[in-house]
Amino acid sequence: MKWFIALSLILYAVAGPLQQVQADNSKAPDFGPLASLVGEWQGKDPEGKPMTASYQWTGGGTSLVETMMKAEKPVMMTMYHADKGSLMLTHYCKLGNQPRMRATMPESAAKRLAFNFVDITNLAQPTDPHMHKVSFTFQDQDNFYPGMDAQQGWNGGAASV
């Protein structure tokens, strides 16, 4: 038992400083206006039913998690993160596919953010329904619009809004 305690203390002494150095060297990216979304938002889905969107940081401030809820049940999730000077999203759709999209890294004062399709996983056919691009308009600190008119999907090989 004594050897276990000694080994644990040695591992903690070595790993502790390494973790601290690593944390001090990482700088969270600037997500522009997306950073202002942290918290819970209320709205309505395209059918007019109540919907909640929750935004929170993960990964030490390097990723933003969006969770969309209807009737207090998670419906979809989107992860936003920086990648080589741009902003990426992976949308975990209720259709079972996962489109990835890219936007130019926004400035803090940006009023509009547009993501364009990069690729997708778990899509049987390219003509199957999926989200292809999305944009956000930030009116002010209390209002933003990711409305369906800003989301373009593909259905049967044709663009749909």
Summarize the biggest pleated sheet.
Answer: 11 strands, antiparallel
H and E string: HEEEEEEEEEEE
CATH class descriptor name: Mainly Beta
Low-confidence runs: 3-25, 147-151
Count of helical segments?
Answer: 1
* CATH architecture classification: Beta Barrel
Overall average pLDDT? 77
Rg on CA atoms, Å: 20 Å
Note the topology.
Elements: H1 2-25, E1 39-44, E2 50-58, E3 63-70, E4 73-83, E5 86-92, E6 98-104, E7 112-121, E8 130-140, E9 143-145, E10 151-155, E11 158-160
Antiparallel strand pairs: 1-2, 2-3, 3-4, 4-5, 5-6, 6-7, 7-8, 8-9, 8-10, 10-11
Give an overview in words.
- The protein has a single domain, classed as Lipocalin (Beta Barrel).
- It contains 1 helix and 11 strands, in the order H-E-E-E-E-E-E-E-E-E-E-E.
- It has one helix at 2-25, and strands at 39-44, 50-58, 63-70, 73-83, 86-92, 98-104, 112-121, 130-140, 143-145, 151-155, 158-160.
- Strands 1, 2, 3, 4, 5, 6, 7, 8, 9, 10 and 11 form an 11-stranded antiparallel β-sheet that branches.
- The protein starts with a helix and ends with a strand.
What attributes does this structure have?
15% helix; 1 helix; mainly beta; Lipocalin; 161 residues
In brief:
This protein is mainly beta and 161 residues long. It contains one helix and eleven strands; from the N terminus they run H-E-E-E-E-E-E-E-E-E-E-E. The longest helix has 24 residues, at 2-25.
